[in-house]
């Protein structure tokens, strides 16, 4: 069965990190270019936007209803009801050329976020992966070893964590403890090419499949739990950045994208949506209370 993508929100957004809010019945996402945190309903109505001081790489939903927002060197907390922003914690010990990138809340209730080397030429594998608790404690879980940290997602049983390097380009899987947040037994899950789609943001469905945005190929690649590509869906945009399962039944896929790509399309930068034949694995909330 194919999957048809339509434009949910047409704008030249530098979109990333879609997150479904089942309480507010909307999807939050970031515009890295503005920079801002945005939200919209799945029928395209009630668009809202909250400016943030610096490039926002990713967001996570808190149990309180607030959002945790990554900045290049820090993490903020945004109250969408009041628009109030406060700094939660700064990231220390990162190289000056690094910034925070992809992030997602894990089954342990912590926000996981990785860093990337922003240099375009002679990029180095100096990215790390961090775990941030609701009280602002930050731990470097994976020390260096990646160019562009990306692709965080967890299996529906919460026992496997996926993590990718967009410039590797590879995807790893880890054994995961939802009780402690410990990651062990790193295993190479898949290696990709430019043509197949370098792995950007990702999500898991209830069948344990891993849905990866192939940012260099304009597709969503669906992997089996053993790392085989089962399906590849064209998204209509040149550079999709991250999928998220949304809607009351988590059976719609919302995909962010990048604008202004070489040989790009008019709809690049749009927020895309498609009905799926499965349901997403629910994403945990950040334990901020």
How would you characterize the overall build of this protein?
- The model has no long low-confidence stretch (mean pLDDT 97).
- This protein is globular.
- The protein has no helices and 24 strands.
- The chain is mainly beta and 289 residues long.
- It has a single domain, classed as 6 Propeller (Neuraminidase).
- Strands 1-24-23-22 form a four-stranded antiparallel beta sheet, with no helix packed on it. A four-stranded antiparallel beta sheet has the order 2-3-4-5, with no helix packed on it. The chain has a four-stranded antiparallel beta sheet with strand order 6-7-8-9, with no helix packed on it.
- It is 0% helix and 49% strand.
List the helices and strands and how they pair.
Elements: E1 6-9, E2 15-21, E3 26-31, E4 36-40, E5 48-51, E6 59-61, E7 67-70, E8 74-78, E9 85-90, E10 98-105, E11 111-117, E12 127-132, E13 138-146, E14 149-154, E15 160-165, E16 170-176, E17 183-191, E18 199-204, E19 210-214, E20 219-223, E21 229-234, E22 240-246, E23 252-257, E24 271-275
Antiparallel strand pairs: 1-24, 2-3, 3-4, 4-5, 6-7, 7-8, 8-9, 10-11, 11-12, 12-13, 14-15, 15-16, 16-17, 18-19, 19-20, 20-21, 22-23, 23-24
Binding site for substrate: 99, 101
Cofactor: Zn(2+)
Keywords: Hydrolase, Metal-binding, Zinc
């Amino acid at each position: 069965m194919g999957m048809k993508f339509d434009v949910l929100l047409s704008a030249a957004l530098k979109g990333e990190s879609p997150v479904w809010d089942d309480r507010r019945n909307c999807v939050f996402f970031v515009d890295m270019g503005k920079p801002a945190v945005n939200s919209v309903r799945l029928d395209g109505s009630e668009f809202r936007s909250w400016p943030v001081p610096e490039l926002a790489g990713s967001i996570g939903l808190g149990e309180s209803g607030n959002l945790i927002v990554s900045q290049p060197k820090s993490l903020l907390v945004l109250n969408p009801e009041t628009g109030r922003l406060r700094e939660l914690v700064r990231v220390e010990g990162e190289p000056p050329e690094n910034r925070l990138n992809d992030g997602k809340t894990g089954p342990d209730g912590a926000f996981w976020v990785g860093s990337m080397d922003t240099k375009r030429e002679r990029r180095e594998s100096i990215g790390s992966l961090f775990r941030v608790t609701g009280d602002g404690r930050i731990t470097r879980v994976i020390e260096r070893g990646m160019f562009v940290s990306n692709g965080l997602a967890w299996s529906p049983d919460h026992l496997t964590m996926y993590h990718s390097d967009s410039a590797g380009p590879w995807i790893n899987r880890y054994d995961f403890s939802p009780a402690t947040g410990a990651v062990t037994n790193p295993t190479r899950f898949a290696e990709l090419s430019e043509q197949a789609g370098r792995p950007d943001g990702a999500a898991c469905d209830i069948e344990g499949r891993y849905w990866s945005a192939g940012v260099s190929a304009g597709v969503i690649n669906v992997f089996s739990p053993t790392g085989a590509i089962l399906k590849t869906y064209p998204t209509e945009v040149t550079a999709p950045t991250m999928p998220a399962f949304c809607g009351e039944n988590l059976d719609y896929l919302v995909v962010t994208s990048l604008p202004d790509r070489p040989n790009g399309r008019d709809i690049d930068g749009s927020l895309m949506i498609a009905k799926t034949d499965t349901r997403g694995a629910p994403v945990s909330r950040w334990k901020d209370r």
